[in-house]
Amino acid sequence: MSEFINVMIAFDALSIAKRYPDASRNPDAPTQVDHDLIYMTTRHDRIVGTSGAELNFRANPRDIIRWRETTLSLNSDYCALLYRYVSSDQLISKPRVVIGDGTYPMPKDGAVDRPDFATQDYEDHYWEADVRKIGRVTYRFYFQILDSEQNLVGYFQWDPFITIDKRS
User: Fold this and answer.
1) Are 48 and 56 in contact (CB under 8 A)?
2) Which residues of 44-65 are buried (b: 16+ CB within 10 A; e: fewer)?
3) Helix, strand or coil for residue 5?
4) 19: three-class secondary structure by DSSP
5) Is 15 helix (H, G, I), strand (E, B) or coil?
6) Residue 141 pLDDT
């Protein structure tokens, strides 16, 4: 039976903005980012080794990988948005963007020591691909960083890999 492999990508957007003040303004020629500023993880029982800018996990053919991106500030100071996947590897299908509605719980103002919350509707997205075969997938993700006023900081890329080992 197919399973979802949810992968969280967290960008250290503040450090990226500081380290690359002259970042590319061309979405087709993004600035390469050091791996120490990007973190990927998934469920602990799926990870082989440790998580980081590269990710090794267990999956079977027909499983579905879903990538979601955020920043270490949860997009409050800066936000990051994936915009292109580049690979000639056929171990997974070409990822597609999926957009749908969501509801997010928010603590009510002054709700200290109480479980009072309200909800906020929003539009959500993730990138999704089907696992076709086990092996090592090499690829590039392009992403943009925006500041808190949605001004472009720059276009960036990094070249992670995912090693897919068969899960039991």
Assistant:
1) yes
2) eebeeeebebbbbbbbbeebbb
3) strand
4) helix
5) helix
6) 94
Mean pLDDT taken over the chain = 91
Tally the C-alpha atoms within 13 A of residue 159's C-alpha that lie toward its C-beta.
6
Residue labelled with tokens 């299908």? 93
The model's pLDDT over 11-49, given as tens digits with 9 standing for 90+, comes to 999 999 999 999 999 999 999 999 999 998 988 877 777
Q: Kind of pairing, strands 135-138 and 140-147?
A: unpaired
Taking the model in full, what pTM does it have?
0.89
d(CA 128, CA 95): 5
- Residue 39: phi and psi, rounded to 5, are -130, 125
Pairwise CA distance, residues 143 & 24, whole Å: 11
What's 16's DSSP letter?
H
Identify residue 50 by its one-letter amino acid code. T
Residue 25: both structure tokens together = 């303004």
Cα separation, 123 vs 109, whole angstroms: 23
Is residue 110 within 8 Å of residue 77, measured between CB atoms?
no
Q: Is the dihedral of CA 15, 19, 25, 31 positive or negative?
A: negative
CA distances from 84 to 76, 100, 119 (A): 23, 19, 31
Q: Measured in whole angstroms, how far is the alpha carbon of residue 66 from the centre of its chain?
A: 9
